[in-house]
Amino acid sequence: MINANQNSPVYLDYQATTPTDPRVVEAMMPYFGGKFGNPHSRNHHFGWEAEAAVETARAQIASIIGANPKEVIYTSGATESNNLALKGVARFHKDRKNHIITCVTEHKCVLDTCRHLEQEGFEVTYLPVQENGLVDLDTLRAAIRENTLIVSIMAANNEIGVIQPIAEIGAICRENKVYFHTDAAQAVGKIPLDVEAMNIDLMSISGHKVYGPMGIGALYVRRRPRVRLVPMINGGGQERGMRSGTLPTPLCVGLGEACAIAEREMGAEAERLRMLRDRMYTRITDRLAEVYVNGDMDQRLPGNLNLSFAYVEGEGLMMGIKELAVSSGSACTSASLEPSYVLRALGVEEELAHTSLRLGLGRFTTEEEVDYAADRICAEVERLREMSPLWEMAQEGIDIKSIEWAEH
Amino acid sequence: MAYSDKLIDHYENPRNVGTLDKSSEDVGTGLVGAPACGDVMKLQIKVDAQGIIEDAKFKTFGCGSAIASSSLVTEWVKGKSVDEAAAIRNTEIAEHLALPPVKIHCSVLAEDAIKAAVADYREKKGIKKDAAE
């Protein structure tokens, strides 16, 4: 039971973070206690014990993505993994190839890393996405040049949950002898992934998106053919020299256990979440008109729903449903007033982008919570539409686009 | 972000939500903001023969601060002359609701809405005066 406190809101933000599974916490506990050794201590029992635990966890992580344990590097999280994959590979090969391809809907940590590499002299192509949020394969093919070093396309999007055609992208990259990196923070443990079948050379993994602890992640780095990279953190040469620093044994164990649980339960969990997600969507759209799904509905994480509620501003809506912990695509909390860049990239019009909510369902979401959340959202949207001048105009048949708005 | 009790009260129990007859001679309508920016306010005032605002209504598309700002100004303008209403400043609104810095633009928009409603009312009266001459 995760929501032990009855007064705490219903958690529907599983793409932001997932609660640590109690079984994961249990697996971690001994390593905060008696089994406290440094896994790099080679000379005594405590070190050996910790090392064994770290390696067992490494094998669990490798197993869920079809990799060899030797190909898994621990990091502090997916942000570091993405930085290491892109900067590491780019800097190693900078004299040979200097073109990188990524996509406009990538997570900020990939985009910002690419911007940084541009300052270092690399050229970056930011692929557009189609209306459904997916990368067009022909556009990708056309973007690959002689000097293209690496393609970085996320497996699943954090905002709209769309799943990119990873296997197809991997095949194109392999054919063109270009490295393929995928940010799989949202995808690991949610959908089947196989680094061999999908021709993935580097993959970023996050602990806290897969019911593991925060502060731990991993980077898969292919050994055959070998992917070489320049480390960002220098030191004792741990993690095959690619990432120095003492491994946090409890966190490694937690990520391993989280992957093992996910590998066992993924099939049934995905089916359950898809059912709950569709139940929520149906319950909302049966009651409300003019609700739009952002992103492809089929190529999508089972636990993600991103909806635009026309004529109701997302942040205003969130304030009215404080019994629910959700996320808004309208980033109006920042001073910029800019709506989500992901929704904009899909071609969602700005006025609709301002009306979106991300509803993230997960392992501990119940049917009762889904029904309650859907009903609360509907009631609040109805209340706010009654208060919305845009809704009133729409009811009167006035085309909102025909009005000359003074944009501020 | 922690909002003030006053702001939350106006958001949860907005005053004077509704619509006045836009075509009426005594009604001034202000429509400000833009859907693409995430804020649209419609503010209407009904002015009596003495030039006093006897009723005010609003509808707002926007965040909680925008809804609260517009709700608040409908309360404030009632009973004021149009000149007094037009003199309401955004800083008074922001201060009353304790708006956080990133939400100051909501109070600016509310001030603009009053001014636009007053301008619309004056224009209607002005046009009528011209026609009578």
Structure write-up:
The complex is a heterodimer of chains A (408) and B (133). Chain A is α/β, with parallel strands linked by helices and 408 residues long. Helix content of chain A is 38%, strand content 13%. Chain A has twelve helices and 13 strands. In chain A, helix 3 (78-92) runs parallel beside helix 4 (108-119). The radius of gyration of chain A is 22 Å and the shape is globular. Chain B is built from five helices and three strands; from the N terminus they run αβββαααα. Chain B has helices spanning 5-12, 64-77, 82-86, 90-97, 104-132; strands at 27-34, 39-47, 53-61. In chain B, 47% of the residues are buried. The interface between A and B is medium-sized, with 31 and 31 residues.
Short note summarizing the structure:
The complex is a heterodimer of chains A (408) and B (133). By secondary structure, chain A is an alpha/beta fold.
What's the multimeric state?
Answer: heterodimer
Q: What is the helical fraction of chain B, as a range of percent? A: 40-55%
Mean pLDDT of chain B: 92
Describe the sheet with the most strands of chain B: 3 strands, antiparallel
Backbone CA Rg of chain B: 15 Å
Strand content of chain B is 15-25%
Distance between the amino and carboxyl termini of chain A: 47 Å
What's the total helix number of chain A?
12
Helix content of chain A: 25-40%
Strand order of the largest sheet of chain B: 1-2-3
Low-confidence parts of chain B: none
**SSE ordering of chain B:** HEEEHHHH
Biggest interface and its residues per chain?
A: A-B, 31 and 31 residues
Structural class of chain A: alpha/beta
N-C termini distance of chain B = 56 Å
What is the fold's blueprint, element by element?
The complex is a heterodimer of chains A (408) and B (133).
Chain A: E1 10-11, H1 22-28, H2 45-64, E2 72-75, H3 78-92, E3 99-103, H4 108-119, E4 123-127, H5 137-143, E5 148-152, H6 166-175, E6 179-183, E7 202-206, E8 217-221, H7 249-287, E9 291-293, E10 304-309, H8 314-320, E11 324-325, E12 327-328, H9 341-345, H10 350-353, E13 356-360, H11 367-386, H12 389-395
Parallel strand pairs in A: 1-11, 3-4, 3-5, 5-6, 6-7
Antiparallel strand pairs in A: 2-8, 7-8, 9-10, 10-13, 12-13
Chain B: H1 5-12, E1 27-34, E2 39-47, E3 53-61, H2 64-77, H3 82-86, H4 90-97, H5 104-132
Antiparallel strand pairs in B: 1-2, 2-3
Helix pairs in contact in B: 1-2, 2-5, 4-5
